[in-house]
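Hi support team,

I'm opening this ticket because the web form for multi-chain structure prediction keeps timing out on my end. I have pasted the exact lines I submitted so you can reproduce it. The total is 838 residues across two entries, so I didn't expect it to be a heavy job. Is there a limit I'm missing, or should I split the entries? Thanks in advance, R.K.
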Amino acid sequence: MPVLCSSCSEKRAVLKRPKTGHSLCKACFFWAFEEEVHRTIVAAKLFRPGETVGIAASGGKDSTVLAHVMKLLNERHGYGLELMLISVDEGITGYRDDSLETVKRNQQQYELPLKIVSYEELYGWTMDAIVKQVGLKNNCTFCGVFRRQALDRGAIMLKVDKICTGHNADDVAETVLMNILRGDIARLRRCTAISTASEGDGVVPRCKPLKYAYEKEIVLYAYFKKLDYFSTECIYSPNAYRGYARTFLKDLESIRPSSIMDIIHSGENLSVREGVKMPVQGTCSRCGYISSQALCKSCVLLEGLNRGLPKLGIGKHHRLHEKILSQQPLTEQEERKLKSVDF
Amino acid sequence: MCQVEEEYHEQLERVDTPSASKKCVKCKEELAAVVIRAGDAYCRKCFRESFIHKFRAMLGKTRVIFPGEKVLLAVSGGPSSCSMLSQVQEGVSQNAHKKLRFFPGIVYIDEGGALGQCKEMRQKTTSELCDMFRSTGFPFYILPLEQVLDLPGSVLTPSPLSDQPGSAYKAAVDLFLQRGDSSSDGKAEEQECVSLPAVQESHTWLLQQLIGSAQTLTAKQDLLNTLRQHLLVHTARTRGYSKLMQGDSCTRLAVKLLTSISLGRGAQLAQDTGFSDCRYGDVTVVRPMREYSAKEIAYYNHMFKVPSVVIPNLDTKMPDKASIQRLTQSFVTKLQADFHSTVNTIYRTGEKLQTADRGSSAPEDAERCVLCVCGLDTAAEEASALQATLISELLSQSSVPVKPEPPATVGQCCSSERPCGGAEGTDDCCRSSRDHEATDLRSLLCYSCRRTVRDMSSVDRLPQYVLSEAQRRQNRSAMKEQISEFLLDDADEND
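Hello R.K., no limit was hit. The queue was backed up. Here is the completed structure from your submission:
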């Protein structure tokens, strides 16, 4: 005898929710998923009516589902938002150009305006060129830092009020674990926040409406709704340190499916002792972007790339920031240390 | 690499392969005998000195143990706790330089009943340990875990601290020195001639039922830890010990930190892994071995012949994915092999955390978890993970009230051994009668204890003291609700 949906108790259940273990039919699952995102948005007061919201779209499953759900909820509940798609082209052949095609298709399907910003036009470097200089171990640092700024620049060009990204519960849990493994107390406090602080001119606040949605449920949603997305791993990512945290999280999930929410709950309830040194927010002296040091990270990384010193930016080099700012040449010893790259 | 705090030194470092002809880095005279971290080679003497010094420095800088206090050492028989025992033994002995000024006792909890060990095995282990303890000269107590079933409910309520504020440490030391050492010798307890306690079969059976009612190994281990902790605190309390020393090493604490995060114990992290844990009020749990890595302890025990006993645990010989604790342990160990600063970094991160929202004022009875006696962290605020989980559960079920008889298919899966598809005590499971009790208990538990109890097939198996304490608290809160309009302000309940 088939199992009935535990919500409507009429139709046959076609899937089991990874989050709670209940068996649901398609319609009830769609409704539960969308309703949860809606409640997250309302409870956290993410948007105000009349705002322009940029959806960070990469063509992957998270951003495709995010675009779909945002459009649906905007219409269903009357948020009054104007939605746009922002996409970043990192210049990774074989990966990014394929996923950008998916974004362009999404744009036509959802009838949303699209803006693509590329590393090439913003920084003068593509990820392919960066990897040739840096190697395969630290490249994710470059990509992540550059992408953050690229999204902000794209948002400012489009004049949006907020950016929303497709980070899901698995991403947030992974970030909590990774920050503990790296000893990054400052980020540990901030990483479970659903939206970033919204002060400053050059900064567009960003939020994560899918923060409490499991990755598996996002895939289930996309599968049953027959959404079109691009599903390959970045070719440069296999050696990233994050991979360890990800494997650990996947194993945890297989032992106890609720551990993802448990980790997010732990992260939300962490508090730092008084007297622990925290970075202070300021602005970069060169480009004016938000930064806690004299030079923002992307300026430091770019400087390293342009001078042929790829390790400048990996590790701490406060003392060198002043030197870079004032255009002084670095001593030979410093140069030698920064040049060495192991593949 | 990948550590935020990584500093690059001035020169390129060349990795020195340790060789037998290297000199000790400390005294630079003797040949090195042991390499702790890459580049740190010590000779026997310097290693021993630094090991002992670390222990004393730990006790000295935290100033938690007052002179003349009675301190109970919780020894599990494993290398860390036996090392701690030998350190204390050394420190208290008469010919020690600056001898330690407290009075130690030893306690060992025999968990063989929960693990299903046969009686002979348990006798053998306990008599081995008995001989080891007897040779130290301290009073010792060997208790079977079955005694946890007879504990009073007062274990779960923190007793008020007897007047010993931290700032009076210096004054206390001076006072002790003035009274002179002669009085202290008389206070040392005579070693009790303890015969190994007999364990009733029925108690063992009850204990096994209790542990067996937890359906996942994670929940079993969590429950076992909680029960053991209760018994230790109770022993300390009844025998007049105000401090309980546990031998968790740095490695063990790093694993515990990650495990706690994975179990949802972020709010209680500082108490679980910090140096001192004051949740029980009059008995403070201290962890003096927390700066020693497991490797250091192993080397020390081997070189200086510290005896220890191998005692199996619930997750011994289990595969990696058997429980969260086991998985985390293997994850950290493997990561440490590739990235040598992993354990240290995790440990330092833990040091910077504190208990959320609670300053020096201890929360009242009603705001503590019934099982782990930590503050509750289940205020489901707007836009929190807890609220999101509750909403998900709500949306996945029908809003129609529960039908009297559950559908046949779901009924089938309830009679089988494994839990019904992970649906936790909800109405599609034929536990509606016990559901009422389970929900009542849940409101008195913190997030992670709720999760553990959810994995248990029946709440009745919990020991009597937990259930009666829960009942008492519920009665009190019902009383408080009735008279709430007449209470003037939040009167202090801890009178």
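A quick check on our side: Strands of chain A lie at 15-16, 23-24, 52-56, 82-89, 114-118, 162-164, 206-207, 271-272, 282-283, 290-291. Let us know if the file doesn't open in your viewer.
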